[in-house]
Amino acid sequence: MTLTKDLDLTQAILTRYILAICMVLGIIGSLFDLIIFCQKKFRSNSCSVYFIATSIFNLLVILCGIIPALLVSYQNYDIALYSSTFCKARGYIIHVLLMMSRSSVALACIDRFALCSRNAHIRRLNQYNIAILLVIIVCILWLTLPIHVLIYIDIQMPGRRCGGSGTYLIVYSIYAAIVTSIPLFIMIIFSFLAIQNLRLSYIRIHPNIVYTNENINRPIRMQKRDIQLMTIVISEVVIYFISTVWFPIYTIYLTITSNISKTTNRLAIEGFIRYLALQFLIFINSCSIFYIHLLASKPFRQECVNSQYDIYKKPKNLSEMSSREKQNKPSDSSQQQDNRFNRQDSQKPAISQQDRSSEENFDIIKYLHNNRDELMERYGYGKSPKRRCPRYYFINKKKSILIILQGDITRTKVDAIVNAANEHMTGGGGVDGIIHRAAGPELYTACVAHKKITQGVRLPTGRSRILLSYNMSSTTHYIINTAGPVYDRYRKEECAKELFSCYQTSLALANLYDLESIGFTAISCGIFGYPANQGADVALRTVDQEAGIVPVVVFVLWDDDIYDAWVRKAEELEFTSFDIENIKTKNPLTSSNDNDQIETKKNLNKNDDQPRSPTTFNPPVRDFSTHDKTPEDNTKSLLDRLPSVPSDTSDTQKTADMEEDDNSSNEKHPLHNQQTQDMTSVTQEEEKSTTKDHSEQKSVEETMDQHHNKQIKTNDDPSQLTVSKKTNNSHAEVAKNETAKDN
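That's the Macro domain-containing protein sequence above. Prediction below.
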């Protein structure tokens, strides 16, 4: 056999067997790529859009490129050599799909670079909507740019081949080399820049960490899903480079040697190289993307396993699911244990119920009265609109106090301060470094003693850990470390959830330890780049909802802009502000309606002292102390409260008594003494009667006033009017008898 026949046989084996196997594996892999990247947790990521587009384009390349090649190899008949339309369409479609796939990978590299960029305008490219727009633009671009293929590619005679001829063959070779090399250079350049930006981002976040061993892989503060996608992109770039770099090289070689006479063996070798560079390696690249992902990323392998489990192991109908639930339903005791130890969601209502009962028994006004001087001494006071003046608000349904002030948190006296730490808990820049220096090396030792959850991560983003204050014991008892998020404006929702978790977990620890006060800084609003306005919104809304039974929440802010943002947001949220200097003289929780009611009651009491006319409209005031009593009970109680009136004696009885007294006095005393004694006794009796009359009249007046006030508070019904008339008649009879007695 000659070299030409050997190369033809090798080409046939590669096409019939290797490409056939790759086609089956490529179709399966592309479908799995679509299933994984279309999941909810990946679907919202902009890089996943490019991977989905790449999988679709590669699947179409396999169907439109490998299947016709297999048919030609098995049947020894190429329809493109006899149909001009099929010749043009096949070359155009395969070229367009390959360029769309390559451009999608290049856009994924740009997306990873934009994610790590410090420039806000560049980071704008890392957005879901922009990713979809760029994919659409790429499709339109590559559908229009290769129009020349439909015009100049045709069946060439003699030799019956599908391709270009003459000058267009040279132009197409240069064009193919350029359009193939541009995505390759974009991938290499932006992958390198993305890695460089990651290193700069790590240095910016952890400026104080020094590694003595240079061989240690430095952990980068980045979302795990983004790191996973970055690894996948770089692996695609490597494979794409290996499979594509030969085509522009071959094209350049073919252009240079086009005018050189060549032997049959050389032409056979060039044809075999052309087959490898133009078809085999490119088709292998399209089929191998999914398997490259499997080899490059361990999380991707786990996602693949989970996807297979969801597809094949999921119950096929609801009846099967319900039967399994009935069979595997735990007992009440085991369910209680699950709720107690394994299910935090079911544990939350019980905790919140306890907190609610504690909050209901807590009187914030009483707390302010008892601790007013201490609060003023610790945090200052003043109602001036100038900066650095503390602002006091009621939050948490007026069960907690919010204080916003400017100052140094290491000098603020609270039960616990919240440190905006990093995932390593080893100290960094900004507030984290200041607190570590103030607390001393003991804090660093306690931090590094924590177990690493993953490589280099002791404190995941959004979580909190509580430690002692060590050298800061004079101002605080505890230091709560919380890992805030690094802000990305195109992942606002994720960053906001992580920041919310920072405040929520810190307040949960404060409630767990029964702390009376907790001090926050503006978490992530420093070197982590979180905007002050958005950070204030998340912080104030969270402490308003999650304060629990912590009476005092303090925000100690250093920068003027951050302080202004916090104050503005507190006013936008309509928190009730108050002046702590006047907290004793005026109740800030008393509404205007309550004040009006108090003034109304005072005016009613004043009007009760004045005599009321029968024609004056006096609306009855409901007395809840006698609301449950019947009218008969009210009448009886009123009659029992009336003073006892002495009964009148008849005139004959009085005359008999006087004559008896005179007779007895005449028998015992002489006339002079008898007259003197009679005059003295009469005078004493008159004085006693006068004093008694005054006291009885005074008691009657007091009783009438009490009854009058009681009558106003009773309901306006016929029974009460009857009681009032009877009481007035009795008062009139008493007054008449007293007047007759005086006479």
